[in-house]
Amino acid sequence: MADNIIPSFKASDLVIQLSSSLKRKPDEFDYGAVFTDHMLTIEWSESEGWQAPVIKPFENLSLHPACSSLHYSVQLFEGMKAYRGDDNQLRLFRPTLNMSRMSNSAKRACLPAFDQSEFLQCIRQLVEVEQEWVPRSDSVSLYIRPTFIGTEPSLAIMKPGHALLYVILCQVCPYFNTETQAVSLWADPKFTRAWKGGTGDCKMGGNYGGALFAQYEAQDYGCQQVLWLYGEDHQITEAGTMNIFLYWINEDGEEELATPPLDGIILPGITRQSVLELTRKWGEFEVKERYLTMAQLCSAIKQQRVKEMFGSGTACMICPIGDIVYQGENLHIPSQDKNSQLTSRIAKELSDIQYGRTPSEWTYLV
């Protein structure tokens, strides 16, 4: 967590302005389209520093037309969820890791530092205000979107002297319907999600907006997501917006769960870290962060050494991968043929922690 000497807002100064008119909570909704009644906003300026945090009725933002976040993508965000357990207790899953990642992204975006503990306390109070929006279901959750934007009213390319930190909430259903089948991926090296020295390890909007064109091309090829490759050897990096895992018998004949290393082009996912820590604790097979190439994957598939492949992330949690379209060939991953035993086991153990069925220090009570 950030050191308390960082000039920052204080959760104890939080002002709560409740809405006089509450929305009806819908029974059905599109992913990320139905928002709660309130939001959290915290303004910053170079001249005055951080202002007091405010929870207020959800409303549109008023931005100058020259706002630096609109013109130069001086902005970033995080993704978290609140879960309602069988005991009716609300929990956040490893939120301190989100705060740390957001702080790192802010530093790269030249946005001001903030006290991570104070910000998390403000988020906790927002979720508490909106607790009736947290579904009583283990298939639906409340998505938390902390966002940080530069609001400098100037077209000059410069470190912003004004910024806005805010949080909005919305109910979300599963991102993919993977109950009946795994997702399919389209792999084409002509598109690159991130590169060495870039911002692929930060959660910035430009990383996602810049991926849309490839995403829709993947759909034209009958696939749901892009398998992002990097370099002349076609290194496997991420799948859509997910970190990726390969469960296989490696070149040395060892049973191994592998995922690409955090070398600057991979987003350090919270679920990714949790999968690594969980499976290493089991001690049942090798768990490694290592480079993986399409040549290695193709060879392993032909030699029937691939057991399962899955993606991980806050939106999807754990998502099995069934097919990869690569260089005109459909590569079938046998995950679903074996009922995704490891994928299902990891998903269940993480879900049990998130919903409080398994006690864990990874959860943060609201």
UniProtKB/TrEMBL annotation:
Protein biosynthesis keyword on record: no
GO BP annotations, alphabetical order: L-leucine biosynthetic process; L-valine biosynthetic process; lipid metabolic process
One Gene Ontology MF term: branched-chain-amino-acid transaminase activity
Annotated Gene Ontology cellular component terms: mitochondrion
Signal peptide positions (record): none
Reactions performed catalytically: L-valine + 2-oxoglutarate = 3-methyl-2-oxobutanoate + L-glutamate; L-leucine + 2-oxoglutarate = 4-methyl-2-oxopentanoate + L-glutamate; L-isoleucine + 2-oxoglutarate = (S)-3-methyl-2-oxopentanoate + L-glutamate
Enzyme class: transferase
Location of the protein in the cell: Cytoplasm
Modified residues (N6-(pyridoxal phosphate)lysine): 203
Keywords from the UniProt entry: Amino-acid biosynthesis, Aminotransferase, Branched-chain amino acid biosynthesis, Cytoplasm, Lipid metabolism, Pyridoxal phosphate, Transferase
Chief localisation class: cytoplasm
Statement: the UniProt record of this protein carries the keyword Transferase: yes
CC cofactor: pyridoxal 5'-phosphate
InterPro entries in the record: Aminotrans_IV, Aminotrans_IV_CS, Aminotransferase-like, B_amino_transII, BCAT-like_C, BCAT-like_N, BCAT_family
Recorded superkingdom: Eukaryota
Pfam families the UniProt entry points to: Aminotran_4
EC number assigned by the record: 2.6.1.42
Family according to the record: Belongs to the class-IV pyridoxal-phosphate-dependent aminotransferase family.
Subunit structure and binding partners: Homodimer.
Family matches, as NCBIfam families: ilvE_II (TIGR01123), PRK13357.1 (NF009897)
Designated name of the protein: Branched-chain-amino-acid aminotransferase
Organism placement in taxonomy: Eukaryota, Metazoa, Chordata, Craniata, Vertebrata
